[in-house]
Design brief:
The structure holds two protein chains of two kinds.
Chain A: E1 4-5, H1 7-15, H2 29-39, H3 45-51, H4 56-65, H5 95-122, H6 126-136, H7 143-146, H8 149-162, H9 167-175, H10 178-183, H11 197-207, H12 215-224, E2 228-230, E3 237-239, E4 249-251, E5 254-256, H13 260-269, H14 271-285, H15 292-304, H16 309-317, H17 320-323, H18 335-345, H19 354-362, H20 385-398, H21 420-423, H22 432-449, H23 455-460, H24 469-479, E6 488-489, H25 494-503
Helix pairs in contact in A: 2-3, 4-16, 5-8, 5-19, 6-8, 8-9, 11-12, 14-15, 14-16, 15-16, 18-19, 19-22, 24-25
Chain B: H1 5-18, E1 46-53, E2 62-63, H2 68-73, E3 85-86, E4 92-93, H3 101-105, E5 109-116, H4 124-133, H5 145-152, E6 161-166, E7 181-184, H6 187-193, H7 206-224, H8 239-252, E8 257-265, H9 273-297, E9 304-309, E10 330-335, E11 342-345, E12 363-364, H10 365-377, H11 382-385
Parallel strand pairs in B: 1-8, 1-9, 5-11, 5-12, 6-7, 6-8
Antiparallel strand pairs in B: 2-4, 3-4, 5-10, 9-10
């Protein structure tokens, strides 16, 4: 006799605790789960147990206090090299040298992705990595254009160091970050022939938001950033006085012989900047539909704190809106949420993490290479027929016993993680690039197959008796943000049960 | 013992996917799947897009063999005059495109010269985004031009999908918004994977509703697509030939699709271009000939329009690595039973290149889109394209 539970019954189970609570009330299991899932990568039973019982205020303070400014995982060995920048092929380099250089940077780029995924898996502060990723998607740079993995690494370090710090400092740091200087063409911005790319994006995407400035403001601001460049041997930021335009500029109605830093300060002084960032944080953590009055209230606190990012997060994560029942399960997991969250949740310890970075890329989130300067659009845009099937195939793979030869990547297009020169190579039988592609995919498949899910140990964390319906209910409550959409068989054997839960549409939500 | 519901559906799917008749009780209004097409938009006519990824060299595709400037710019890469398949006394096709010559003679091949746009962008990623979204050069749009088309003039609900993207992870002109787009590499594999779709549920928010919609799109396509039409046409044994076979299988289904997009990759020929491009153009020509064969078998050739496109062409002056760098406007092909064959636009002047050595354009790519919208499907184009672009007279009624 099997016991089937209708989705509506589980809906009652899952939302019973999701009522708004005053700040001083202790977080219940579901509230703690919600807070940790939204601010990290999934939430394990042990983590939830550590937070349940704290007040909202205590819980959020604890989360913020545990944030860090540096990664624990040692970077790839090449990241510390200071002369790599000088090894780029020069003007007279042969095609062979160029190709070798490009392949080398591709390899480094993959190591870098693996390094970040390792950090996400092992960090004691998932919020730090979530915020680093948030800023990576705000201050977008892509290795597709920057090319040098070293610069992408350095930018990641800068983003993490300021991820929960001072937004003003972060903006100033990013503006002179070498990867950004290359990505938004500041290198080409010279007196007399300004390149407006950075000036436009700093207003449209980094601070004010679209429509809050004029084309003339962009032209004037671009002049202020002339001469912001990088040193051709070290790859460090450098200011080139000779090509800087030191004349009078008028930006947002304010005139003077402004330099780039002063223009950034003008942008930071605008009320709109605080609201723009707060609105984006709301979409990241609370719901797809920011509440205007609440955004204004929180943005005000953000500004009063002189752009202390922790203050904004504290206000956001203790708000009634954050815990409101109608905002639960309204966000779609990013590919990184799904991949890293699944590995963390089930305590799977991969021997290599690059294949998991590549798996996320195949689902549409290639770390260090957002699609364009606007970043990943997120939410609904994460899910189309290709990416949804890629997600499900990945999950199916993770929870299938005795299927060591599964070939997820051989059947998937991984061209998005290759540099442009190679991704557009044809796949002919004699083509060495095609052969390498196949070898690469095989290696990725071996990596995915290396993880192990210890279902006995995992189910032991629940207090209910083993292999009971109570066990199944506890697993569903831990794994899903809302009721399962399919009828689940609660007496299915453990592996099959977990597979059914993660393949349910509700597992895509957080 | 209660069987698991998903097992029921999986079993059902397996049968129905290979047995089209079984699908009729599940939503097909009439055995003639295209009967419900609204008079306003004639999606019974299929559009097949072929993306030449990487940026095909237009100058060596349609060769201006009578122009001395061509041989000056291309001392190593020029196609010698005696090898060109002359179409007129001044231009001709690359020898690898010889299989297309019969289509030219039958006036089913329109050659669109100098297709491009103002203020061209030379980045692969950005320029293909401009083409895919039909945006202006400095305008960022989220939705593909076909996504906007199907939002303005939906396809019949009985269709298997609005569009099918073959062998590429990005949805290109079908990205964003609410289209029913399916991406697959081959139909059998898609049918196998689709068993993981679980479209049941009562969405109580927009995010869940979106996921369930995509699951349902996968199911609908899986139910209505089959992979076993017995073509007599022989498809080339190449990656592109396989993609053309898949495209033909998709079009063979009785439930319609409005658009199929296939991709031929490898045109970013910065070095040693001659052999690479010759092989790619040969793949392209053989693929198109096979596609025509399949569509004629299906009696769909007169209701099919095949169009090539790419992010850009290549720079007229060859580089020092026997290749060419990123360029601007390029030549493209339109083929089909209703195409009015001939030359359109004009060959870009090689005497008046821009500061960075690139060509100007003769046909705005959005005019090609306007032609598809207005003359092929009968959909007004100015709303979709955010402006008025003159349709080309390249289709016969």
């Amino acid at each position: 006799m099997r016991f089937l539970v209708a989705p509506f019954l589980l809906a009652a189970v899952c939302t019973a605790h999701a009522v708004a609570l005053p700040v001083t009330t202790a977080l219940g299991y579901d509230d703690a789960r919600h807070l940790l899932t939204r601010t990290g990568f999934a939430a394990t039973q042990a983590e939830i147990e550590r937070y349940a019982g704290l007040t909202r205020e205590q819980a959020v303070k604890k989360l913020l206090a545990e944030s860090t400014r540096t990664a624990l995982t040692p970077p790839p060995s090449w990241a510390a090299d200071s002369d790599v920048f000088a090894q780029r092929p020069g003007v007279g380099a042969s095609e062979m040298e160029r190709k070798r250089f490009q392949e080398e940077e591709t390899r480094k780029g993959l190591e870098l992705r693996g390094w970040w995924v390792t950090e996400m898996l092992s960090t004691p502060s998932p919020l730090t990595e979530r915020m680093t990723l948030f800023w990576h998607n705000h201050f977008v740079s892509s290795q597709q254009k920057v090319k040098l993995a070293e610069l992408m690494y350095r930018q990641n370090v800068t983003l993490r160091a300021n991820a929960l710090g001072d937004f003003g400092e972060l903006l100033h740091a990013v503006a002179r970050d070498p990867a950004m200087v290359v990505y938004l063409d500041s290198v080409q911005n010279r007196k007399g022939t300004p390149n407006e790319n950075f000036a436009r994006e700093v207003m449209e995407l980094f601070t004010l938001g679209e429509g809050q400035y004029s084309e003339q403001d962009i032209k004037e601001a671009a002049r202020a950033f002339t001469g912001w460049s990088i040193d051709r041997s070290t790859g460090e930021f450098t200011f080139r006085r000779l090509i800087h335009d030191d004349g009078v500029k008028t930006v947002l109605g304010r005139s003077g012989k402004r330099d780039g830093d002063q223009v950034l300060d003008i942008l930071l002084a605008e009320r709109q900047t605080g609201e723009f960032i707060t609105r984006k944080l709301w979409r990241e953590f609370v719901s797809p539909n920011p509440d205007d009055a609440e955004v204004k209230r929180i943005a005000e606190r953000f500004r009063e704190s002189r752009y202390d990012i922790k203050s904004a997060l504290y206000a956001l994560l203790t708000s009634d809106a954050f815990y409101a029942a109608e905002n639960r399960a309204t966000l779609i997991k990013s590919p990184i949420d799904l991949v890293v969250g699944t590995l963390r949740q089930f305590d799977m310890r991969p021997s290599a993490t690059i294949p998991f970075a590549v798996a996320a890329a195949a689902m549409g989130q290639n770390l260090f290479a957002p699609p364009n300067v606007r970043g990943w659009r997120g939410q609904d845009a994460w899910i189309n027929s290709t990416t949804l099937l890629a997600r499900k195939q990945f999950l199916d793979r993770m929870f299938r016993a005795g299927d060591g030869g599964s070939q997820t990547f051989l059947a998937t297009d991984t061209s998005m993680v290759q540099p442009p020169g190679r991704s557009i190579m044809p796949a002919g039988a004699q083509d060495p690039d095609a052969i390498r592609q196949i070898q690469f995919r095989r290696a990725m498949d071996r990596g995915l197959n290396s993880v192990h899910f210890d279902r006995t140990a995992w189910f032991e964390q629940f207090s209910s008796p083993a292999n009971s319906v109570g066990h199944a209910r506890a697993a569903i409550r831990l794994l899903l943000a809302t009721a399962p959409q399919n009828s689940l068989d609660l007496q299915e054997e453990p592996l099959g049960l977990v597979r059914s839960i993660v393949l349910d549409a509700a597992y895509q939500l957080k | 013992m209660t069987a698991k519901p998903t097992m029921d559906r999986r079993g059902f799917l397996k049968i129905s996917a290979s047995t089209p008749l079984l699908a009729f009780p599940f939503g097909f209004a009439t055995p003639v799947a295209h009967a419900a097409v609204p008079a306003a938009a004639d999606y019974d006519k299929v559009l097949v897009l072929i993306e030449l990824k990487g940026g095909n060299d237009g100058l060596n595709t349609l060769v201006p063999f009578a122009d001395p400037a061509y041989y000056v710019l291309r001392p190593k890469l020029a196609v010698s005059r005696d090898r060109v398949i002359a179409l007129t006394d001044s231009v001709g096709l690359h020898p690898s495109l010889e299989p297309l010559f019969p289509l030219w003679k039958e006036r089913e091949l329109a050659v669109l010269q100098g297709v491009g746009y103002p203020e061209p962008n030379l980045s692969h990623f950005r320029s293909i985004e401009i083409w895919d979204t039909a945006s202006k050069s400095a305008e960022y749009m989220q939705e593909g031009w076909l996504t906007r088309t199907f939002a303005a003039a939906p396809t019949p609900a009985s269709f298997a999908a609005d569009g099918v993207i073959i062998g590429s992870p990005d949805l290109g002109p079908l990205a964003g918004g609410g289209t029913r787009t399916i991406a697959l590499s081959n139909t059998q594999q898609f049918l196998r994977q689709s068993r993981l779709a679980t479209p049941e549920g009562e969405p109580h928010n927009k995010a869940l509703a979106h996921i369930l919609k995509v699951e349902a799109d996968i199911m609908q396509a899986a139910l209505r697509l089959s992979a076993d039409y017995p073509f007599r046409t022989e498809f080339p044994q190449t990656a592109f030939g396989n993609a053309i076979r898949t495209a033909s299988q998709v079009i063979a289904n009785r439930a319609g699709v409005a658009v199929v997009r296939v991709t031929l990759s490898g045109f970013d020929t910065h070095n040693a271009q001659y052999a690479t491009q010759a092989r790619l153009l040969s793949d392209l020509a053989d693929g198109i000939v096979a596609l025509k064969g399949a569509l004629v078998e299906l009696e769909r050739w007169h209701r099919s329009l095949v169009l090539t496109y790419a992010e850009f062409g290549r720079r007229p002056k060859e580089n020092l690595s026997n290749g060419t760098d990123h360029g601007t406007s390029s030549v493209h092909f339109a083929l089909g039973g209703r195409v009015a064959g001939g030359l359109y636009g004009e060959q870009p002047s090689l005497d008046r290149l821009s500061g960075d050595g690139n060509t100007s354009y003769a046909i705005d790519f959005r005019s090609v889109y306007a032609t598809v919208l207005e003359r092929w499907w009968g959909v007004p184009s100015s709303g979709v394209l955010n402006g008025r672009y003159t349709a080309l007279p390249m289709l016969r009624s």
